[in-house]
Amino acid sequence: CGNWSGIGRIDVLLGDYLKKDLADGKTILGYLNDDFGTWPAILWKNEGGQWKYDFIAAEYWEPDYQMGKPYMVFGSDAMSLSANGKWMALSIQTEFDPWDFSGTTPDVQVARLNLETKQLDVIEGGSACYCVSNDGTLLALAQDEMGGRTPYIVKAGSKELLAFKDAYKFAELNDLVSVTPSAIAADNSAIMAFGYDEAMMVYCFLIH
């Protein structure tokens, strides 16, 4: 990690969090603020005490469709890395035009990348993902035209979206018009989310 203008060494600033909270203490997930606004994913890996830069999106991403890469979005600002550093949850898009508001371009999709095998699973129907556990279970959401969010879980080994209301049977979920999943335990033992009802009252809840 080099010195960032106005920030300093990011590994020094993060300190003990690298050991306790960020993947296995050896991997940091981030994205580039590129000229096209597509936020391609990058990794920093600690190898022998030195942080090395890995442009993980390079195999899949190119903002110009003429370059032959499959995705014009491979990353975004809503990504997650599993606690063991094996799984990455991200957003992908085959076409991207920041000035096109017609709604005719392909929708953003959710994907899960195995960083060991480089297998990419595309999840049909999701529009954003927020967290992934050690076995590849991820939490995602789909957003409607009015901004309402429906939360989903995609279990390990599956590419099917399972709605929270079908996976977890409790009445409180039925009273909320929008729910955003925010965290999942490394062993899938607990899930955190927040949402609001028709009166715009915000609720935070824990599923375990």
Notes on the structure:
By secondary structure, the protein is mainly beta. It is built from three helices and 16 strands. A four-stranded antiparallel sheet has the order 6-7-8-9, with no helix packed on it. A four-stranded antiparallel sheet has the order 10-11-12-13. A three-stranded antiparallel sheet has the order 3-4-5, with no helix packed on it. The longest helix is centred in the first third of the chain and has 5 residues, at 10-14. The chain is globular, with a radius of gyration of 18 Å. The protein starts with a strand and ends with a strand. Residues 1-8 have low confidence and may be disordered.
Name the features.
208 residues, single chain, 6% helix, 4-stranded antiparallel β-sheet, 3 helices, mainly beta
The string of secondary-structure elements, in order, is: EEHHEEEEEEEEEEEHEEE
What separation lies between the terminal Cα atoms? 37 Å
The counted number of beta strands is 16
- Share of β-strand residues: 35-45%
List the topology elements.
Elements: E1 3-4, E2 8-9, H1 10-14, H2 17-20, E3 27-31, E4 41-47, E5 50-54, E6 73-81, E7 87-93, E8 109-114, E9 120-123, E10 128-132, E11 138-143, E12 149-154, E13 162-163, H3 164-167, E14 178-184, E15 191-196, E16 202-207
Antiparallel strand pairs: 1-2, 3-4, 4-5, 6-7, 7-8, 8-9, 10-11, 11-12, 12-13, 14-15, 15-16
Write a brief caption for the model.
This protein is mainly beta and 208 residues long. The protein has helices at residues 10-14, 17-20, 164-167; strands spanning 3-4, 8-9, 27-31, 41-47, 50-54, 73-81, 87-93, 109-114, 120-123, 128-132, 138-143, 149-154, 162-163, 178-184, 191-196, 202-207.
